[in-house]
Amino acid sequence: MFNGFGMGLGQLSRLSHAKTRSISPENFTGEKGKGGMATEGTGASCARDLGQGWKVSPSVLINKQSTLTMAEIHDSGVIQHIWLTCHPDTWRKLIFRIYWDGEENPSVEAPIGDFFCNGWCERSNVNSLPIAVNPAGGMNSYWEMPFRKAAKITVENISNDDIILYYQVDYTLTDLPEDVAYFHAQWNRTNPVSYKDVHTIIDGVKGHGHYVGTYIAWQVNSCGWWGEGEIKFYLDGDQEFPTICGTGTEDYFGGAWNWEQPKGEYCTYSTPYLGMHQVIKPDGLYRSQQRFGMYRWHVMDPIRFEEDLKVTIQALGWRSEGRYLPLQDDIASVAYWYQAEPHNAFPKMPGKDELEVI
To answer: How many CB atoms lie within 10 A of CB 151?
Structure first.
C-alpha cells in the first residue's frame, strides 16, 4: 500500500502526502491556487455584474474539425475521476483520447458517448462502479488511470459544427509502484456483422495485463430473440478455440432468459458491475430497429493475460426447427483493459459517416 492511490472505503481514514489537483475550464493547468481566476470565457457575459471568480469560464467551445487538449499533466500520479457533459447529438462526433508518458499513439480512443456507455446518442442513466451517467447527461468515469511521467487527454471534434463541452478532471500527484499498469480503452464497430462471422471487441493486444470491461451498443436487424451468441476470450496464443467461452449474450451481462420480465417485455437494470441499461424500441415509423446498451465490468474478476488477447462475440438468434440463426446486426463496442506499456497502435478511427448513428 502506498499513499494516495487505490484508496477504497477501507482506506479513507489513512493520511497521505499525495497532492490533490483538478483541471477544468476554471483552471486549465490544475496549478495550485489558480482556480476561478478567468476574466474571459463562456460565462463572461453572465458574470458581467459580478466579475472574476463568479463562473466566468465553466466550459469551452471546441471549434469544428479541431482538437482540444482537455488536460495535460507532467508528473507522476493517478487520474481518479473525469466528469463531462455535452449534447447527445455530439456523442459520436467527439473522439476521446488519452496518452500516457508522452506516447505518440493513444492508449484510450473512443467516441465520448460510447466510452461512457451511451453509444446511441440518446441519454441513458448508468449506475455502476467505474462509470456513472446521471440526469441529464452528466458522464462520470472512476476508472483508475495511473501515469509515471505525463498524461494528456484530448477531445477531437470531427463534426462541421462548433461544440460546447463542460468537463473536470480530478487527479492526485503521487509515486507509483512498479507493478501498476496503464489504463486502455478501444472502440470498434461491425456494421453489419457478416453472415456466420463475429463481432471483434478487441484484437491485436500484445503485452502483460488484464481485461476489465466491455460496453456494447447493439442494433438488432431481424425479428426474434437475438442474444444466443457466446463471448470468447483468446488468451496467450489461443488459436481456433478460446480459453474462456461464455454461454450467451444476456448471460455474460449478468441476466438470464432473454431479460424477459414481465413476460413480453425487456427489463432494464444497472448494477455496480453489469447491466442492460438501455432499450430503444421501434416507433412503428422511421425507428424500425431495436437498440440495446449493455456493460460488464470485470472489476472483481479481471481476465489476466501474459502475452496477447483477443475478444469476440457472436450475433446469434433462432430460425425454424429449433436451429440457431447467425445474425447480421450493427454492433459497436468499447473494450477496457490495463497493460504494461508499450502497446500496439490501434487501427485508424473511421470517419464521421462510419461512426454515425442513423
So the answer is: 27
Q: What single DSSP character describes residue 89?
A: G
If DSSP codes are grouped into helix, strand and coil, which group holds residue 104?
coil
| DSSP reduced 3-state for 355 | helix
In whole angstroms, give the CA distance from residue 95 to residue 268. 28
Q: How far is Cα of residue 98 from the mean position of the Cα atoms in its chain?
A: 12
Burial of 286 (0-12, 13-18, 19+ CB in 10 A): exposed
Given a contact cutoff of 8 angstroms between Cβ atoms, the answer to whether 338 and 182 are in contact is yes
- For the domain 182-343, what is the CATH code? 2.60.120.1390
Amino acid, res. 120: W
Environment class of residue 332 by beta-carbon count within 10 Å: exposed (0-12), middle (13-18) or buried (19+)? buried
Extents of the domains making up the chain: 1-180, 182-343
Q: Note whether 1-180 and 182-343 share their fold.
A: yes
- Alpha-carbon distance of 77 to 67, in angstroms, equals 24
Quickly name the fold that domain 1-180 has.
Answer: Jelly Rolls (2.60.120)
Task: List per-residue pLDDT tens for the chain, 358 residues long.
Answer: 345 566 677 788 999 999 999 999 999 999 999 999 999 999 999 999 999 999 999 999 999 999 999 999 999 999 999 999 999 999 999 999 999 999 999 999 999 999 999 999 999 999 999 999 999 999 999 999 999 999 999 999 999 999 999 999 999 999 999 999 999 999 999 999 999 999 999 999 999 999 999 999 999 999 999 999 999 999 999 999 999 999 999 999 999 999 999 999 999 999 999 999 999 999 999 999 999 999 999 999 999 999 999 999 999 999 999 999 999 999 999 999 999 999 999 999 999 999 999 9
Tell me how far apart the alpha carbons of residues 86 and 60 are, in angstroms, rounded to a whole number.
10
Full DSSP string of 55-83: SS-S-EEE-TTEEEEEEEEESSEEEEEEE
